[in-house]
Design goal:
Blueprint lengths: L3 H13 L15 E10 L4 E12 L2 E10 L3 E12 L7 E13 L2 E16 L6 E12 L17 H4 L6 E14 L2 E12 L3 E13 L4 E12 L5 E9 L1
Length: 242
């Protein structure tokens, strides 16, 4: 687990910076979005992630994510997102392709990711809102098999495994967000994940996002397990757009 000083630094940076995925809406050309967040459960498992998006053109967005799991894995991923269709009407569609990898126990493992997303704005909720459905398939190279049973020196038990990258994982996320008050957003997300090591799981993530000074926002959320492995977790994040 990272030293306490590192955790304090991460929490401090959260108060200064950074945002959620644009989903199927491409970033404006030359627009930059950054998000720093930490998610932690009661078993002292945590994940710190730095996420970014940059608008390359009206229809193309470049994204990246750097992450560190307290159980001992550091990851990086970069992807290109392409808008589909002519952009008319209420519905928006995108596809993406990403390359990256992770380091665990001194081993470097490559990862390939493909994704697709749909979304549209909605006006029947207070303040207006949006709905999206995003799917991703991630395939990693051959890696050392992780034993789910406790060992003498390293323990990769049930809940902790969910913070590590399996060889094959499929994710589906459905998000509903709206703005009940000026300067505030409520975001609810259903997360479904099928992993080749722990099987199918489901979580419900709910967050409140509040405007800070200038372009910055802060997010506080709760992640609740619905099925499969995993513990309830708290999420703290900050958003910044240029």
């Amino acid at each position: 687990m990272p030293p306490k000083g590192t955790c304090r630094l991460a929490l401090f940076l959260l108060m200064l910076a950074t945002a959620a995925s644009a989903g199927p809406w491409p970033r404006e050309p030359k627009a930059l979005f950054l998000s720093l967040s930490v998610e932690a459960d009661r078993n002292d498992n945590s994940y710190v992630g730095l996420y970014g998006e940059y608008g390359l053109s009206p229809r193309r967005t470049l994204g990246f994510e750097l992450g560190h799991a307290s159980i001992g894995e550091t990851s990086a991923m970069i992807w290109l997102q392409q808008a589909r269709g002519d952009g008319s009407g209420a519905n928006r569609w995108v596809t993406s392709l990403g390359l990256g990898g992770f380091e665990r126990d001194g081993d470097l493992v490559p990862v390939v990711q493909i994704g697709a997303a749909w979304g549209r704005g909605i006006d029947w909720l207070p303040g207006g809102g949006w709905i999206t459905v995003e799917s991703r398939v991630k395939v990693a190279g051959k890696q050392q098999e992780i034993e789910p049973e406790p060992e003498e020196n390293v323990v990769y038990e049930g809940d902790a495994l969910t913070y590590l990258t399996p060889q094959v994982t499929t994710k589906l996320e459905a998000t509903l967000g709206f703005r009940p008050f000026t300067g505030m957003m409520l975001i609810n997300q259903l997360r479904l994940e099928d992993r080749d090591d722990t099987g199918l799981s489901g979580k419900l993530a709910s967050s409140v996002v509040r405007d800070l000074a200038g372009p910055a926002k802060i997010e506080l959320g709760l992640v609740l397990p619905l099925a499969g492995d995993g513990e309830a977790a708290v999420k703290l994040g900050s958003w910044l757009e240029f």
